Amino acid sequence: MTNSTLIEPQLADVRAYLKEDIGTGDITAAIIPETVQAEALVITREAMVVCGQAWFDGVFRCLNADVSIFWHVQEGEAVSPGTTLCNLSGFARALLTGERTALNLLQTLSATATIARHYAEAVVGTGCKVLDTRKTIPGLRNAQKYAVVCGGCYNHRIGLYDGVLIKENHIVAAGSIAKAVQIARQQSSVPIEVEVESLLEFQEAIAAKPDRIMLDNFTLDDMRTAVVMNQNAIELEASGNITLENIRTIAETGVDYISIGALTKNIKAIDLSMRIKLVH
Q1: CA-CA distance, 44 to 84, in Å (whole number)?
Q2: Residues 6+ apart with CB under 8 A from 119
Q3: How many CB atoms within 10 Å of residue 34?
Q4: Do residues 255 and 238 make contact, with C-beta atoms less than 8 angstroms apart?
Q5: What whole-number distance in Å separates Cα of residue 111 and Cα of residue 103?
Q6: Would the N or C end of the chain have less CB density within 10 A of its end CB?
Q7: pLDDT digit string (tens) for 78-135?
Q8: Using CA atoms, how far apart are residues 102 and 244, in angstroms rounded to an integer?
Q9: Residue 280: what pLDDT?
Q10: What is the mean pLDDT of residues 218-231?
Q11: H/E element holding 108?
Q12: Measured in whole angstroms, how far is the alpha carbon of residue 26 from the centre of its chain?
């Protein structure tokens, strides 16, 4: 995907977002004669990592293909407060109708990319990769997964269909960690991960030989012990109560991955403003 092109399934999502806002019609924009032209600019009021240009563009493409958009910044670029992100020109009705949906997408995806950048920078040099989770905003799963990568982190499984993650309830239902892994191997060829909550469970998981083991809410000492016990045999992932303040210390225990739900669920939308003026 380029910075300004969405594939058809993504455009279908954008049309749904517009339908949610427009409904039977934008009765406020209708007060503007349909031939009136306008110009607009979008600025950010806070520092951010730019993300979501394709979704922003897609909103206006769906409304009127003649809307012109010129970006002054690159996708994935870190910018300062007060930066002009882009200029738009076209029919005033299209700009007014698309404003909120376009800004909603841009400010949300940029928020995800921005927090991802903070976490990615916090582990630079450790060799550890920061992963997202499935704790995404409904309807924005793929877009937020994209934003995480844009910010410098990595995707965990996209959904329930592309990776097995055996958690406590799965283990109880299957009978044991070994049995759960065995059945998963028989049923699917996708990567298999097991979540453990103690060193005892960790030993059981190592014996079952999944592709990855998630250390859920382990203490730092137990993480270090698990790394030594593992001897690089299986990928290790830390999860639970990860913050910007402690992530580097966790990465330095020697785990391969750290997964963080906050990348997609604990975001604060970037403060953006779109200013429109009529062209006379």
Answers
A1: 7
A2: 130, 151, 153, 244, 247, 260, 263
A3: 10
A4: yes
A5: 12
A6: C
A7: 999 999 999 999 999 999 999 999 999 999 999 999 999 999 999 999 999 999 999 9
A8: 30
A9: 63
A10: 97
A11: helix 92-122
A12: 30
| pLDDT grade for 1, boundaries at 50, 70 and 90 | very low
| Three-state SS letters, 61-90 | HHHCCCCEEEECCCCCCEECCCCEEEEEEE
- Say if CB 98 and CB 122 are below 8 A apart: no
Q: For the chain, what is the total number of helices (H) and then of strands (E)?
A: 10, 12
Beta strands 68-71; 84-91: pairing state: antiparallel
Straight-line distance from the first to the last Cα atom of the chain, in angstroms, rounded to the nearest whole number: 37
C-alpha span between 277 and 27 (Å, rounded)? 19
pLDDT of 138-148, one tens digit each?
999 999 999 99
CB-side neighbour CA atoms (13 Å) of 94 = 23
Q: Mean pLDDT over all residues of the chain?
A: 95
* Neighbouring residues of 255: CB distance < 8 A, sequence distance ≥ 6: 128, 215, 223, 227, 236, 237, 238
Distance CA 245, CA 225 (A): 22
> Which residues are within 8 A (CB) of 222 and not within 5 positions of it... i.e. 6 or more apart?
198, 199, 215
| Under 8 Å between Cβ of 183 and 208 | no
What positions carry a catalytic annotation? 100, 135, 167, 195, 216
